[in-house]
């Protein structure tokens, strides 16, 4: 046999770290923002009967302990495997009145109907033939996330098995539903539909939208005014009316999941900064007394005890994971605040460039853990509410040799534009020169990139006539 045809079997040994389900759960908890974490805890409580939430007026079902500070609470949780002590987040106790208001608020956040469901509900009130209703359903299913009709009528006719004439009629029916402008093919048609619903189909503003919207968007106001034989001031009044229309019908609605809850507070007193982690949204958890008694009862069947032990272990791990999450966030936030102390004391222009690797080294954890911990989390200080990621950025060297964050440069660009003359706005090159006077050496393409990231238009589109 040819040597080249021989098969060599080589046995090698290597170590691989395989994460357990519980380790994965701990990482997931670290990644979740506050409101999602709260929902996840509620779900776990529903699945685990040994975990219960303390009610403010409940004195019978738990082993009460009061006056526990954060360190004592942490110590008791970590010892829970040994003595099944009471699990309590002491920083989140509520009076009966406050708890009732909090519960009412949380219960009032209901899942909203999708805009498709709202449209279908409106259809039911119309006296439509079954074929018309079915065709309208196909139209509604073809709308994108902002309510635009992206499918061609011919494709919709094929999908619905109806004639093109019937599909166009169905499109017209859907376009007469609320909100005005639904099922338009583009922004121009959306605005035209909204004006038509206001009875302004024969108005000058309708003409501007129909014939000159692109030129208006390019800020060619003198040319449009000349073509329409009206003054610049008259055209500006028409534009103000257009700006009062609604270009976005669906994306304006904020779902309950988009509400922001700060997870870290930074307080200042006599130039001393204090970092506090917000535990108020975490429930007061404890191990059910009933199940602990079942474990002690000799008459309890072995399979029942095994089940309870399994659920106890799962519950304890959940609580310890929550503790670990809050502790990790506090360590990272404390290191961040210490590194950015001049910002928290003096303001935005003192924000320094900082990387996640720097904070990871200070805290003694991996950089990816920092990335997970700050994702979707917010910090509140005297300057407002900031995403934790806001404090991590690359930097530029100022004239004096010090490093400044790119966010400082962005802020400087925004302030220059806010103060500019509207009739003669600053070009990107002029902004570069102004930044040099302030000690920032930034290229023109960088100014353009930062300006676009802040959704600020170029100078020709910012000009006001």
Kindly describe this structure:
By secondary structure, the protein is of the alpha+beta class. 52% of the residues lie in helices and 7% in strands. Among the domains are: 21-107 and 277-322, no CATH class; 114-182, Arc Repressor Mutant, subunit A (Orthogonal Bundle); 395-462, Homeodomain-like (Arc Repressor Mutant, subunit A, Orthogonal Bundle). It has helices at residues 21-31, 34-47, 70-78, 80-83, 96-108, 115-124, 130-141, 153-160, 164-175, 187-197, 204-217, 221-228, 232-243, 289-296, 302-339, 341-346, 356-363, 367-374, 406-418, 428-437, 444-453, 459-462; strands spanning 51-53, 264-269, 272-277, 285-287, 378-381, 384-387, 395-397, 403-405. The strands form three sheets. A four-stranded mixed β-sheet has the order 3-2-5-6. It has a two-stranded antiparallel sheet with strand order 1-4. Strands 7-8 form a two-stranded antiparallel ribbon. Strand 5 (378-381) and strand 6 (384-387) form a beta hairpin. Helix 6 (115-124) runs antiparallel to helix 7 (130-141) and helix 8 (153-160) packs across helix 9 (164-175).
Task: Considering the chains and any ligands shown, give keywords for the structure.
465 residues, alpha+beta, Arc Repressor Mutant, subunit A, four-stranded mixed β-sheet
Number of strands: 8
Q: Roughly what percent helix?
A: 40-55%
**Structural class by secondary-structure content:** alpha+beta
The Rg value, from CA coordinates, equals: 31 Å
Low-confidence stretches: 56-95, 105-111, 252-258
Largest sheet: 4 strands, mixed
H and E string: HHEHHHHHHHHHHHEEEHHHHHEEEEHHHH
Q: In one word, what is the shape?
A: flat
* End-to-end distance: 89 Å
Our estimate of the beta-strand percent is 5-15%
Mean pLDDT: 77
Count helical runs. 22
Biggest sheet, spatial arrangement of strands: 3-2-5-6
């Amino acid at each position: 046999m040819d040597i080249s045809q021989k098969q060599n079997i080589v046995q090698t040994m290597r170590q691989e770290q395989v994460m357990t389900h519980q380790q994965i759960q701990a990482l997931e908890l670290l990644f979740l923002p506050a409101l999602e974490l709260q929902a996840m805890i509620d779900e776990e409580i529903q699945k685990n009967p040994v975990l219960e939430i303390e009610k403010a007026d409940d004195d019978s079902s738990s082993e009460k302990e009061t006056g526990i500070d954060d360190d004592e609470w942490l110590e008791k949780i970590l010892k829970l495997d040994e003595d099944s002590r009471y699990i309590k987040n002491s920083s989140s106790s509520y009076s009966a009145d406050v708890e009732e208001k909090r519960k009412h608020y949380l219960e009032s956040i209901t899942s909203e109907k999708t805009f498709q469901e709202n449209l279908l509900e409106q259809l039911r009130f119309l006296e439509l033939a079954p074929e018309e209703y079915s065709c309208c359903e196909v139209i509604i299913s073809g709308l994108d996330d902002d309510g635009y009709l992206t499918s061609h009528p011919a494709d919709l006719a094929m999908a619905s098995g109806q004639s093109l004439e019937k599909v166009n009629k169905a499109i017209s029916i859907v376009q007469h539903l609320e909100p005005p402008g639904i099922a338009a093919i583009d922004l121009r048609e959306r605005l035209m539909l909204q004006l038509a619903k206001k009875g302004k189909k024969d108005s000058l503003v309708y003409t501007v939208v129909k014939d000159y919207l692109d030129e208006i968007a390019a800020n060619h106001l003198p040319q449009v005014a000349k073509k329409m034989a009206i003054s610049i001031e008259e055209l500006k009044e028409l534009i103000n009316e257009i700006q009062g229309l609604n270009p976005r019908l669906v994306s304006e609605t904020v779902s309950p999941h988009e509400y922001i809850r700060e997870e870290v507070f930074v307080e200042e007193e006599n130039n001393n900064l204090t970092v506090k982690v917000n535990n108020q949204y975490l429930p007061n958890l404890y191990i059910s007394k009933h199940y602990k008694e079942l474990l002690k009862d000799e008459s309890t069947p072995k399979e029942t005890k095994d089940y309870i032990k399994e659920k106890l272990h799962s519950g304890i791990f959940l609580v310890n994971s929550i503790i670990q999450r809050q502790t990790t966030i506090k360590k990272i936030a404390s290191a961040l605040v210490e590194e950015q102390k001049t910002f928290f004391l003096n303001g935005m222009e003192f924000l320094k460039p900082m990387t996640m690797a720097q904070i990871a080294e200070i805290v003694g954890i991996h950089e990816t853990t920092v990335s997970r911990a700050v994702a979707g989390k917010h910090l509140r200080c005297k300057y407002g509410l900031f995403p934790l990621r806001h404090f991590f950025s690359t930097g530029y060297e100022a004239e004096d040799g010090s490093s400044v964050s790119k966010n400082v440069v962005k802020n400087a660009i925004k302030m220059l534009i806010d103060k500019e003359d509207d009739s003669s706005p600053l070009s990107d090159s002029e902004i570069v020169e102004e930044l040099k006077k302030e000690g920032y050496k930034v290229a023109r393409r960088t100014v353009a990139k930062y300006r676009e990231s802040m959704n600020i238009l170029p100078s020709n589109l910012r000009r006001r006539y």
